[in-house]
Design brief:
two-stranded antiparallel sheet; 21% strand; globular; 301 residues; 7 helices; alpha+beta; 6-stranded mixed sheet
Length: 301
């Protein structure tokens, strides 16, 4: 008997949903986009006066597998015309007198060959003031994606952007529901590598103020079928947005991932079940037995 439901039957992160999102192409990006929008709306519903959240471009690059046609089109796209500027190709040790070799100055952005559409989305919280109607960005919220975690194709880029964000002294919230890859903080035990005292899910709230050496990172660690924690989000100065309910937002996004809701069968083990630690596997098996009882009693719709 198959068991399917539009309501998240798990207490916290849905193991069946997570496995499908990692296994079906493009499904993680669909969930990511929906969850970021839901996070933005939930924050705006509860942020104190003078703050607002917006959905913006992430620090993370999406992982895109190009078709042969798309790859060829990218290779064939027009290249910059080198005649647009002159650079004197003369050695610094040239015996010819005259002006020194020319130096062309560009912004780093102009030297980066990354399509803006390749970025994921994130939430940025702004402080709004009377003399600044569009506000000042003060806190960033990122939902980590597989490609941007260690061993992922875009991890190196994300690591550099993450470091730059912290050097700018902007608080950063990183939501990590991805138990199959190592954490972005190297000192944390890795659940994917079966290290002792590791947790599958993490929320990292980094506040690099007043300096990186004096700043504090608060880590919220939680396990399979455990409640998603209430978190505190730093704002301007000593302002803190307390007890933000990530679990409620997760359960808002879940029913919107219609493909996975339609496909996930809670009478069977999640895909890649072996990627969970033995104690988590026992919890998930017990949960599925409970789901079956609830479904038979029409308590799970």
């Amino acid at each position: 008997m198959s068991i399917r439901t539009r309501r998240n039957p798990y207490t916290g992160v849905n193991a069946h949903l997570n496995s499908l999102l990692r296994s079906v192409p493009c499904e993680w990006e669909s969930f990511h986009a929906a969850h970021i929008v839901d996070l933005t709306r939930a924050l705006n519903a509860r942020l104190p006066s003078g703050y607002e959240a917006r959905t913006e471009r992430s620090l993370q690059i999406r992982e895109v597998a190009l078709s042969e046609d798309a790859a060829e089109a990218r290779r064939q796209r027009p290249q910059p015309d080198g005649t647009g500027f002159e650079v004197e190709k003369r050695s610094a040790h040239s015996p010819i007198s005259g002006t020194p070799p020319a130096a062309l100055v560009l912004s780093v952005l102009e030297t980066t060959d990354v399509d803006p559409e390749a970025f994921l989305s994130a939430v940025v919280i702004y402080q709004i003031q009377e003399d600044n109607l569009f506000g000042t960005p003060i806190t960033r919220v990122e939902l980590l994606s597989p490609a941007n975690k260690p061993h992922g194709a875009s991890y190196a880029q994300y690591r550099e952007k993450r470091n730059a964000a912290q050097r700018s002294r902007m608080p950063l919230v990183e939501i990590d529901y991805l138990h199959q890859s190592p954490p972005v903080i190297k000192s944390l035990p890795s659940y994917s590598d079966r290290q002792p005292n590791a947790y599958p899910y993490t929320v990292i709230v980094s506040d690099p103020r007043p300096t990186l050496s004096e700043g504090v990172a608060r880590l919220y660690l939680f396990g399979a079928n455990a409640l998603v924690p209430l978190i505190d989000i730093p704002l301007v100065g000593d302002d803190v947005f307390t007890v933000f309910d990530l679990g409620a937002v997760y359960n808002t996004t879940y029913p919107q991932t219609l493909t996975c809701v339609r496909v996930a069968d809670y009478s069977a083990l999640p895909l890649n079940f072996e990627r969970y630690a033995p104690e988590a596997q026992a919890l998930l098996r017990a949960s599925m037995a409970t789901f079956s009882e609830m479904y038979s009693a029409h308590q799970l719709e």
